[in-house]
Amino acid sequence: MVEGKIICFFREKKQITQRDLGMGICSSSHVSKIERGLTEYSSEVVKLLADRLQVDLEVEKETYYTIKSLLHQWMEAILMRQRKKAEHLKRKIEGYELLELPEFKRTYMLIHIRYNMLIGDFSDVPLIMKEAEKEENLSDIDVHLLLHNKAICLLYFDRDYEGAKVLLRQIDDSMYPYHEFYYHLALSHYFLGQHILAYKYASKSLDYFMKTHNFSRIIDAEMLILIQLEQDSMTEYKEDKYQSLLEMSETYGLQEQQSIILHNYAYHLFVNRHYLKAMDLYRRAMNLKDPNSKDYLGSLEGYIHAAFKSSMNAPKKLLKWVEEGLEKAKKLEDERSLHLFTLHQYKILSRLDDYYYYLESTAYPYFSNNEMKPQKDYYQIQLYHHFVKTGQMEKANLLSSACIESIEPKHQYV
Question: In terms of CB atoms within 10 Å, which of 102, 142, 176, 186 comes out highest?
Fold first, then answer.
């Protein structure tokens, strides 16, 4: 079959008809069947066809299997977040003429989407995704890789957690070797507030990352598992685990993971009212992040909230940090952060009427409509208490059923 694919590729590349290629060797229909792998053929016939195309069949067969192996290595390097290795493999793969074979071209396109995500170049992802969706005759692995890529886009770009979950549940792990998809399935369940399922799939992803010695992703999975454990009262265990993950990230020089752990550890301390310690960890997380990124804004918002709760900073200083957050949120078009910083601003200035008006009319509807469950659950409780306190019982009753479902959530915002 491989020989047939190679002959078809070079015949079409040289714009030779099946009839002309087979003249004096075999019929055009036999050439067609050889190319499609629908018939048995003698090595002599295939060699004659290859010689007419001026192709060294043995060399090209070796190239075929080399490209197949390199594509797998490229995907693995991306999963391991080995950026330099991934860049090197990409250049190496692109140097082969046989990459234009349809089966390789399709796989290359799908892996290229993940490569762009790795290097932070998201501008071409929607376009490549549309092209990939038009492709036909995808292999089983490519079908699953397409599902995985689409789910990642829904998860991170569209925040369509239900849609991502539906796609990821269609993946058959016996046909798809990259079980990293369990991590994204766990994330989908987490954002939907389904913590038991999030724990289950995060554990499955952890098993995969441990088997593949993917240390940076082990930390990701452990962190996600730890977040699920925030739902219980195992405080001492969690403290030890945060410290362990932090030491591991520092040992392996995993700056991105270190910043995430610091941020989550800070939030854990904040929830337990250790505001000064939380401030220190939020600051350390910010120092490891790009100051013009949404991740940075998340840690800045946490830092401001901890500082406000600690009562150790003057309102003027707090407002300066809030102004920084508002300015950057506008530039990044980060609506979530924009709402949180605006709420901070009203709270610091003691403009509580403006705070609750903005929360009711703008911020809460945004969190609710965009399925941001932690913020939605927290703020509906805040609004409910506000409506009861101010005698707005009709509005309170409208929120009451939703409040009963979420009870008093552990998430804390401004």
Answer: 186
